[in-house]
Amino acid sequence: MHAELSGPLVAFVLGAAVGAAPFLLGLLPRARRGARPDESAASSDRSGRRTVRVAAVSAAITLAVLAAGGYAALRMFLGSTPMAAADPAQAVDEFRRTVGASCPAVPRSIGLLGPPCGGVYEYEASGSWTTTAPILGAEHRELPATVPATVLADDDGWSLALRYFDKHVTTLRFRGGVGPHLEELGGETDSVRFGLPVHTDVTCDPPDVVAPAPLGTEWTAACEAVTGGLMGASQTLLSTDTLVGVERLDVGGTPLEAWHVHRETRVSGSQSGTVSRDTWFSTTDGMVLRLELEGRTEGLATHVETIRLRLRSLVPDT
After folding, report:
1. CATH class for the region spanning 88-311
2. Chain centre to alpha carbon of residue 206
3. Is the separation of the CB atoms in 132 and 301 below 8 Å?
4. Where are the beta strands (DSSP E) in 73-167?
5. Could you give the C-alpha distances from 39 to 45, 51, 104, 107, in angstroms and in order?
6. Helix ranges restricted to H, 37-142
7. What is the domain partition of the chain in residue ranges?
């Protein structure tokens, strides 16, 4: 038995016993010694009515105690999950065990965008997540000042794993095309909410072509998000992207050009709402140089998130 549950469960059991005792005792027949038959009948009738009243009150008390005990146990078991900032050194160790190669992880093809150098990058970060659910209450997390992110490349593109916390990782999947252009394939998130592990897969079919296009061009994309487990849900993500422009950024003292893409997403399904995202992608290799996101969805729970990320250096730790 979980130690954190022992207190509420003890209160739950004792409360149930205390609440049930008068109910059970109230059912026992009582009669006065030496009473005449008519008095005995009247007394029995009064006793019966009293028994019903006692039983009703006792049942109500018992149900209230059971509900309170169950609620306390549920809140204790599904309480807010402590999270720590992700450790960049641990991310580097995992990268070395997974890849065992220095930057670049795979050679770039001529005329094909990307992949970025494999390794662990760091973003300056700010923002927060707030989830509010009936009975469970609210869970709020402030984003750490530094978020490590791991780039892994393969034959079908590359992934960017944003390690927001030690128990919250969002991975974005990209693929470079000739031209060059950049495709966003989807991604996944692994996190913990109210003590429960949550895994969400996002699939975009066909992939969302992120850039390039004539400035001001708009295009649409449809993706599906599926969350498994006890908190299972599915949503449809309908997005409209706009290429705002090609902008010049400074990353760790190095100037470079970036595609600035604005995305408005309408979420429908078990959760509904909107998400607004601005992303700056390197025109050289498709690396996410900067990201700003605002989102709010409502349904079984209400989720509000704000994310601000800015890449500190173009050279990853390997």
Report:
1. mainly beta
2. 25
3. yes
4. 119-133, 137-142, 146-154, 157-165
5. 10, 18, 99, 102
6. 37-77, 88-98
7. 3-77, 88-311
- Cβ–Cβ < 8 Å for 32, 43: yes
Could you tell me if 108 and 190 are in contact, meaning their C-beta atoms sit under 8 angstroms apart? no
Residue carrying structure tokens 């992110």: 149
pLDDT tens digits for 15-50? 333 333 333 334 334 444 455 555 555 555 666 666
Q: Is the dihedral of CA 249, 308, 314, 99 positive or negative?
A: negative
Locate tokens 């609440």: which residue? 19
Could you read off the pLDDT of 145-157 as tens digits, one per residue? Answer: 999 999 998 878 8
Q: What is the pTM of this model?
A: 0.74
User: Cα dist. 264→238, 276, 282, 295 in Å?
Assistant: 8, 5, 21, 10
Which H or E element spans position 9? helix 6-26
> pLDDT tens for residues 42-100?
555 666 666 656 555 555 565 544 444 444 444 444 455 678 999 999 999 999 888 76
Cα–Cα distance between 30 and 9 in angstroms, integer?
34
Alpha-carbon 165 to chain mean position: 11
Cα(first)–Cα(last) distance of the chain, in Å? 42
